[in-house]
Each structure stands twice: as C-alpha cells, then as structure tokens.
C-alpha cells in the first residue's frame, strides 16, 4: 500500500503548496482511492507535480462536511469523470464555526457543487463496504472525551443552529492480510473513540493510522488542549500497539511533539508530498 499526502497544513518540500486542509491518495490492490480533497483544488496541482493523474481515481471518500476536506470537490469532478464519491448522510447540512464575539462563518460544502454532481455522490447511513476490503465506519463509541475545539463548531438542522454532533463524520478502514489501516480526517468524535470502535467492529490488529486528531484546540480564541489531556490521549493510543501513526492537519505540531515524547519513533508528521509504503 502506497499513501501520498497531496495536501496538508504543513509543506516542507519546495515546489509544492500546503493549505489548511487534507487530501491523501491511497494506491492498493490495483485500486486508487482519494481520501478528502483539501480546501481548494491545489491538491490536484500537487498531484500533477508528483506524476499522479487524478483522473484514474476509482473512489473518493469525504471524511466529513467541512470545507477543508471537501473544498476541492469541484476540481476533482473536473479532473475525474468516473469515480463514485462517498460521504456520510448529513455532510450536506450547513456547517459553521464561531469564535466568541464574532458572527457564524460558513464552513460547509458548496451546495452548488453537491447539486451539480449529485448523481455521483452516495450518502451513507451506516457501516458500509464500498470496495473489496474497504469499509466506511460511521457510528462511534463515546467512551472518551471529544476534542475541546468542537465547541466552536455548529450545524444547522431544521432551521436551528446547534452544536455539531459530527454524525456526518466517517472513517475509512482498509483490511489487509497483515492488519488494518485506518484513515480519519479530523477525528472530531475523538481518536480514542475511533480506535475503540474499529477494534469492536473488526477485532484484528491495526497496522497504521493516518489522519488529524483535532487536538490543536482553537488558537484564534486562545483555547488550546491541555497538556494533560494530550498526554492521556497519546498514552492510551500507544496501548493499541499500532505499528505506525501518521498524523497531520488538525493535530498541529505542538501536539505532535507531545505525542512523539510518548509514542517515540512510531509517530510521524505526514505533510504535503510525503509518501509512505505500508
């Protein structure tokens, strides 16, 4: 399995562009899967520089209904005429962020794009097998706390603006002969809850995890996750005996450094244009 970061908040290699967003390309078992599209179409530009043709992507999975994961949807559709797109039911709702003292800011998916390409989008209600050995998990346990940054995120339902429940968040699992590889866009439901749910559903070892853990807090509001909570999450995550953890996007470098102190060489920050062979 080959995993390539097409876009991330961090970009260490010259010639590529980063942005607040996430897009990962997975090449596995003669199939090409795209996980999220970042905030704009820049992921395509980076792909071209890496010699990757987005037109050959077989399936696109959108982890949740926020612009930094689905903002590149239209560019994707322009480049790819065949792939089916999967996202959770509710990903098409209006989603907002709000800092204290400021108005609501729309962070959802462009409705014009959803309407224009509706025949290529499938909304999932529950756990679904979308390809051979490729699963989408939508329902998660609630044993551990969720990220504090969620308190600044909202959804509009039946004309009311409510705290976001993140029922529109999904996780992708690839099931190989030697274990599972888990892809989580932001882990708004909590990365520990994600891992507990994956263990309960599949009952086999997790070889690797890719994704953001949404533990950077809300720096614009002066709110960051407490060090004790970060270390607790890192210590618990290390107990799952995951071989490799590739974190990125909304984890943030501050949290990554805390994790590295606990997890050691098992964890790597996966930035724009990075490649990993699993």
Automatic annotation (TrEMBL):
<dbReference type="GO" id="GO:0102041">
    <property type="term" value="F:7,8-dihydropterin-6-yl-methyl-4-(beta-D-ribofuranosyl)aminobenzene 5'-phosphate synthase"/>
</dbReference>
<dbReference type="InterPro" id="IPR036866">
    <property type="entry name" value="RibonucZ/Hydroxyglut_hydro"/>
</dbReference>
<feature type="domain" description="Metallo-beta-lactamase">
    <location>
        <begin position="21"/>
        <end position="91"/>
    </location>
</feature>
<dbReference type="InterPro" id="IPR052926">
    <property type="entry name" value="Metallo-beta-lactamase_dom"/>
</dbReference>
<dbReference type="Pfam" id="PF00753">
    <property type="entry name" value="Lactamase_B"/>
</dbReference>
<protein>
    <submittedName>
        <fullName>7,8-dihydropterin-6-methyl-4-(Beta-D-ribofuranosyl)-aminobenzene-5'-phosphate synthase</fullName>
        <ecNumber>2.5.1.105</ecNumber>
    </submittedName>
</protein>
<dbReference type="InterPro" id="IPR041712">
    <property type="entry name" value="DHPS-like_MBL-fold"/>
</dbReference>
<dbReference type="InterPro" id="IPR001279">
    <property type="entry name" value="Metallo-B-lactamas"/>
</dbReference>
<keyword id="KW-0808">Transferase</keyword>
């Amino acid at each position: 399995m080959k995993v390539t970061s097409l876009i991330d908040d961090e970009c260490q290699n010259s010639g590529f562009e980063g942005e607040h967003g996430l897009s990962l390309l997975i090449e596995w078992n003669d199939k090409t899967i795209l996980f999220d599209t970042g905030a704009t179409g820049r992921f395509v530009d980076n792909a071209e520089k890496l010699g990757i043709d987005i037109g050959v992507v077989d399936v696109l999975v959108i982890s949740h209904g926020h612009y930094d994961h689905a903002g590149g949807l239209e560019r994707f559709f322009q480049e790819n005429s065949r792939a089916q797109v999967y996202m959770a039911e509710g990903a098409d709702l209006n989603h907002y962020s709000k800092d204290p003292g400021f108005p609501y800011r729309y962070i959802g998916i462009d409705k014009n794009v959803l309407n224009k390409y509706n025949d290529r989008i499938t909304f999932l209600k529950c756990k679904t097998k979308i390809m051979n050995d490729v699963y989408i998990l939508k329902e998660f346990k609630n044993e551990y706390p969720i990220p504090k940054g969620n308190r600044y995120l909202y959804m509009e339902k039946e004309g009311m603006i409510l705290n976001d429940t993140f029922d529109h968040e999904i996780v992708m699992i690839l099931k190989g002969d030697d274990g599972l590889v888990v892809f989580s866009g932001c882990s708004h439901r909590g990365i520990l809850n994600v891992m507990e749910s994956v263990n309960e559903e599949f009952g086999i070892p997790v070889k690797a995890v890719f994704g953001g853990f949404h533990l950077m807090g809300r720096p614009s509001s002066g709110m960051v996750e407490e060090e004790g909570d970060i270390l607790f999450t890192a210590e618990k995550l290390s107990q799952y005996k995951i071989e490799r953890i590739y974190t990125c996007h909304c984890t943030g470098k501050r949290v990554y450094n805390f994790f590295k102190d606990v997890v050691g060489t098992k964890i790597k920050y996966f930035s724009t244009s990075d490649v990993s062979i699993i």
